[in-house]
Amino acid sequence: MQSAACQLTAKNTRPSREKLCCFQLNRGLDDLDCALNHSRRNFFGIVDRAREFRDKAGFFMAIMVAVTDTDEGAYALATAIREARELHTNLVILNLAARRVDTSSIPSDVPVDIVTRNGPEDRDHAQVILSQIHEHEGVTRLILGVHRRSPVGKATLGNVSHRVLLEAPVPVLAVKVPE
């Protein structure tokens, strides 16, 4: 829509250069807005068609999250719930903690599968995470909580997250608790 100052008159007079530039700018913005709305419709249409195809074909897509007893584990779980809800996928919670995972914050529209540790034989958390990714077909992303390390800690510790980042067959989203 053009402003009153930018409208071209139907008189035989030639529009000023300023009015002509303003008219062209408004027309360009209208064209850009139309193209953007068209792109949004196409994008969401493609997403909806992909979801319908996935549902009809019986594809199983899930986000896996490794949860520990730490603040990083709780933050990773909160991030995974948000991601699963936004992407309309299932959530696989890999409980690496000694206690049960609190599932009260998970909305009812997010399907959840909780995998618990077997006992002392699965003390290598990196191996447990990697094997569970292979066991659960359809895992499309892993969410892992990480924390800040000192320079000495970087050299000696952090093997679990480092190993999982390097060896995971799916993309890994490493999240850090905000300060």
UniProtKB/TrEMBL annotation:
Domain UspA: residue ranges: 123-176
InterPro entries the UniProt entry points to: Rossmann-like_a/b/a_fold, Universal_stress_UspA, UspA
Stretch forming the signal peptide: none
Superkingdom, taxonomy of origin: Bacteria
CDD domains per record: USP-like (cd00293)
Family matches, as Pfam families: Usp
Protein family (similarity comment): Belongs to the universal stress protein A family.
Protein name (record): Universal stress protein
Upper lineage: Bacteria, Bacillati, Actinomycetota, Actinomycetes, Mycobacteriales
